[in-house]
Amino acid sequence: MRWTGKPVEGSPVIAVQKAKELVQAGQVQSLHLHLIEDQPKQVDGLKSRLKSLQPYPSKLKLDITCADSRVYVPDLLGRLNSQTPAFFLIDPYGHPLSLPVISSILKRQRTEVLINLMWFQINRDLPIQRWRFD
To answer: DSSP states of 14-50 as a string?
Structure first.
């Protein structure tokens, strides 16, 4: 990812960095991160980038999955213990979750959700239309 022409870390890498810091500092007992991408090339790139953060602490579990989040997340919700605290970072760009799935996430106890909407990226990718008034 680039910001003002300079490479910056994307949210998955930042999440793993912070998770590692929290576990190493003893601020949490354990963390399990599920990173879901639907493009194999993106998954390979993420795995490659995360190698520099290894080894992970024993109480940090990381699953990087190549899957359609619209299928994977509802399945994950069914597998999670309803009392397990959870945080969902939803980046809907390119593969949005449906409102019923987001609603299911929000109904969980001890769960927080952050939906990342990158308006500048969305606007940049919209086709530019020029209006002519003759």
So the answer is: HHHHHHHHHHHTTSSS-EEEEEEES-HHHHHHHHHHH
pTM assigned to the model: 0.77
Tokens representing 38?
């639907």
Residue 66 lies in a domain: yes
Candidates 60, 24, 31, 65; CA nearest to 46 is 65
Structural domain contains residue 103: yes
In the chain (134 residues long), the average pLDDT of successive 10-residue segments reads: 70 92 93 92 94 95 93 92 87 74 90 79 60 46
Please give the residue range of the domain that contains residue 75: 2-123
Residue 130 belongs to some domain of the structure: no
Is residue 95 within 8 Å of residue 70, measured between CB atoms? Answer: yes
Number of domains in the chain: 1
User: If phi over 0 gives left and psi between -120 and 50 gives alpha, with beta otherwise, what is residue 110?
Assistant: left
